[in-house]
């Protein structure tokens, strides 16, 4: 049975492990399979990316910065959307949007941090 391109189903010639007939088909296949499959996912991912950009804007360096909650809200930050949590031994809860996170300090202030190594 001949091997066919995963994208356009054209018969392939050459190497036995070849999967695509061209770079165009390889890119098209991966773009189609890695795109957000529906509006719900796309909207959530857009909110997460926006939250990350806002946190990055308030903390362009490596050190922790303090920011007022109202300033985050004015930029459109949505506190209920984050990628993960980190709980310290002392019980403090950091919420992260990818490598940027925030900690509620009380009195309407938040500490914005950046993880140096983001692997979990």
What series of H and E elements makes up the topology? HHEHEEEE
Radius of gyration: 21 Å
Regarding quaternary structure, how should these chains be classified?
single chain
Treating each run of at least 4 consecutive H or I residues as one helix, how many helices? Answer: 3
The number of distinct β-strands equals 5
Largest sheet: 5 strands, antiparallel
Low-confidence stretches: none
Structural class call reads: alpha+beta
Distance between the ends: 42 Å
Reading side by side through the largest sheet, how are the strands ordered? 1-5-4-3-2
How would you describe this structure to a colleague?
Strands 1-5-4-3-2 form a five-stranded antiparallel β-sheet. It is of the alpha+beta class and 120 residues long. The chain contains three helices and five strands; from the N terminus they run H-H-E-H-E-E-E-E. The model has no long low-confidence stretch (mean pLDDT 90). The protein has a domain at 39-114.
């Amino acid at each position: 049975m001949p091997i066919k391109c995963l994208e356009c189903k054209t018969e392939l010639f050459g190497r036995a492990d070849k999967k695509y007939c061209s770079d165009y088909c390889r890119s098209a296949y991966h773009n189609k399979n890695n795109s957000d499959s529906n509006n719900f996912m796309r909207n959530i991912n857009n909110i997460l990316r926006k939250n990350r950009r806002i946190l990055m804007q308030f903390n362009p360096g490596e050190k922790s910065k303090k920011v007022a909650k109202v300033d985050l809200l004015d930029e459109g930050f949505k506190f209920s959307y984050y990628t993960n949590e980190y709980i310290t031994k002392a019980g403090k809860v950091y919420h992260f949007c990818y490598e940027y996170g925030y900690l509620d300090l009380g009195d309407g202030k938040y500490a914005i941090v950046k993880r140096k190594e983001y692997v979990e």
